[in-house]
Amino acid sequence: MSGFAAQAPSGVVMIRPHHFTPNPETAADNVFQSADGFRTRGEIAEAAFDEVTRMAGRLREAGVTVHLFEDETTATPDSVFPNNWFSTHAGGHVAIYPMFNPSRRRERRSDVIEMLKQRYRVQDVIDYSGLEPDHVFLEGTGAMVFDHIGRIAYAARSNRTNEVALERFCTHFNFEPMLFEAADANGAKIYHTNVIMCVGTEIALVGLDTIVGEARRAEIRARLEETGRIVVPLSHAQIGEFAGNALELRGSRGRFLAISSRAVASLTPAQRESIEAVTPLLALDVPTVELAGGSVRCMLAGIHLAARSGAAASFA
């Protein structure tokens, strides 16, 4: 797989929740969560369902293959964020991850893994969920932001990103781990790396000010720049608007950056110009889903696998 294709997948998995609600279990360490005191629980769930439906439709219109699964249960309030429990990698590799909160462990679905095996060339599935009884967690591409071209896994240490699990994953999947400390403007730990960092083929959006330590901050910027990427620094305020929570995808007209409308509105004209010089922006409205503390990137599990020819069409 070429570097061009490696960083920007052309297929994604999405989960459409029928009973969405911000998860009180995860609020303790996710400062990005917020409450909605104006709508009923049912209205919030309906709005989230509609946002996922529209987002999937717009991605399909852009030429992205979207595998949309339904979650009709009430047991998995964060199921709209499937990127945390599994990831896929070139060469036919799939990883399943240990999750910090018990309610999130129920999000793992055998039908999603079976679809991947049927539609794509999967060589092996490595399941790290057995680390949970030892309180060792690594929440997928929430915990790690991959440079698939340079083979680097950027990771902010938190309750959801354990150093031992990170080292084990990187050994198995041939990534160099770059672990760092990150905090918001009030000193609270960043719960997931993908809210402060987006690495595309030619550009990286990074909340550099969240990275603790001037030397480490400079080192991470240098690693991004040495691969030829344009680094767009994001402020604490922009990180709070989910400007770092974006994902580069490849559609029928080439690469583009999937990002929320709220995030786009927070960008300065100069930042937009830098981004759009190398990749168009696709702004997606997901304000209800963002109540749960994640945005567009969290809603997308990218597929970095080779498709099978004549794959069964029974999986949407």
Automatic annotation (TrEMBL):
Record Gene3D superfamilies: L-arginine/glycine Amidinotransferase, Chain A (3.75.10.10)
Membrane-spanning residues: none
A Pfam family hit: DDAH_eukar
SUPFAM superfamilies the record matches: Pentein
Xref: NCBIfam families: citrull_CtlX
Protein name, per record: Amidinotransferase
